C-alpha cells in the first residue's frame, strides 16, 4: 500500500496554500456527502516518517453522540499521531458511504474505517476494498455480510445488552414504585441500524416477558426534530402513555419538548417516565434532573480503540473480530442499585453533579 511521505506532502500543501491562500484541508463533495482531508497542521510530525492514511466513512452529524464519535476519530487520527485522515460525512445516506469507500480505494488509503448507517447492502463495495487489499474496520454499527472476512474487526457497543439493561432497570423501578401498568411509546432509531435493532429487541422481549403494552412504535431517526414530531403525534393518539423509550438522547430531547408542550410532565413524580440511550453531556444532565429517568450509556470514543487495531495490523498481528466497549447504566435517584442480565450484574450509577462533571463527552 502506497504511503505518503511527509516531506512530499508538506511541500504539496505549501503549494496548495500559496495557490488558494487558505490553510487547512481541502474539501470536495462526494455526491452529497462531504469529504475533508485532515488539516495540514504546521505542528504535525515533520519527521520523514510515513503517514498512515485512513479513510473514515462516517454516518453523518445527526446527534450529539455522532459529533463526539467524529471528534474522537479526528483527535486520534491526526498528523501529529502519524496519520492522514480523510473524513467523509455521508449525511445518513448509504449511497454516499459507498461512494466514499470507492474514493478511498481510488486514493489507495492504507485503511478504511466504516460506521455503516444500516447493516445490509455492503457486500459489493467491501469486496472491492478486499480486492484492493485495503483492510476495513467497522465501528459503531455492524455490517451484515455473507462473508465476514470482508471486515477485519468491529469496535462498538452491544446494543441488545444496552436494551436489556434499560428494560431490567425499568422493571425494577416499576416494581419499586408499584407501577402496575406500563403503556410505552417507543421512539426507534434509524431503522436497520444495529443500535436500533438491538435496543428494539431488548424492549420487545421485555414487554412480552413482563406484560408491558407498547402502545406506539415509530422511528425518530436518532434526531431531536423527528423525535419531537413523532412524540407529538403519539400523544394525540394515546392518552395513557406513562413511559417513553427513546433510542437515543436527541430523540429524548425532542420527545420531552413535545410532552411539555402537550401540558404533561416528565420525571419521577410526573405523568411520563422517559428512558434514553447515549448519555451524552446534555443527556446525562437531564438524567440528573430526572427529566430522563434512566440513560443507558453508549460510548462514542472509538478513536483510540481503532488506532490500537491499526497498530496491531501494522505489526502483522491477528485481530479479534468483535471488541465490545464497556458501557454503564445511569439513572435518576437510587431506587435501583443494579440489574442482572444472563447472570452478570451491572451496577447502576446515580447521576449526581460529580458524575456529570466527571464525564469525558
Ligand atoms: C450507537 C450509534 C447511534 C447513537 C445515536 O452506536 O450508532 O447512532 O445511539 C447515533 O445517537 O445517531
Ligand atoms: Zn453502545
Characterize the structure shown:
The chain is α/β, with parallel strands linked by helices. The protein folds into two domains: about 35-155 and about 300-325, Rossmann fold (3-Layer(aba) Sandwich), CATH 3.40.50; about 160-300 and about 330-355, Rossmann fold, CATH 3.40.50. Helix content is about 40%, strand content about 25%. It has eleven helices and 17 strands. It has helices spanning about 5-20, 65-75, 95-105, 125-130, 160-175, 195-210, 225-235, 250-260, 280-290, 305-315, 355; strands at about 5, 25-30, 35, 50-60, 85-90, 110-115, 135-140, 155, 185-190, 215-220, 245, 275-280, 295, 320-325, 330, 340, 345-350. Strands 1, 2, 3, 4, 5, 6, 7, 8 and 14 form a nine-stranded mixed β-sheet that branches. Strands 10-9-11-12-13-15-17-16 form an eight-stranded mixed β-sheet, sandwiched between helices. Helix 2 runs parallel beside helix 10. The radius of gyration is 22 Å and the shape is elongated. It starts with a strand and ends with a helix. Zinc ion (ZN) binds near residues 157, 162, 298 and 327.
Topology:
Blueprint: E1 4-5, H1 6-20, E2 27-30, E3 33-37, E4 50-58, H2 64-76, E5 83-89, H3 94-106, E6 111-114, H4 123-131, E7 136-140, E8 153-156, H5 159-176, E9 183-188, H6 194-210, E10 213-219, H7 224-237, E11 243-246, H8 249-261, E12 273-278, H9 281-289, E13 294-297, H10 303-314, E14 322-324, E15 329-331, E16 338-341, E17 344-350, H11 353-357
Parallel strand pairs: 4-5, 4-6, 6-7, 7-8, 8-14, 9-10, 9-11, 11-12, 12-13, 15-17
Antiparallel strand pairs: 1-4, 2-3, 3-5, 13-15, 16-17
The chain binds beta-D-galactofuranose and zinc ion.
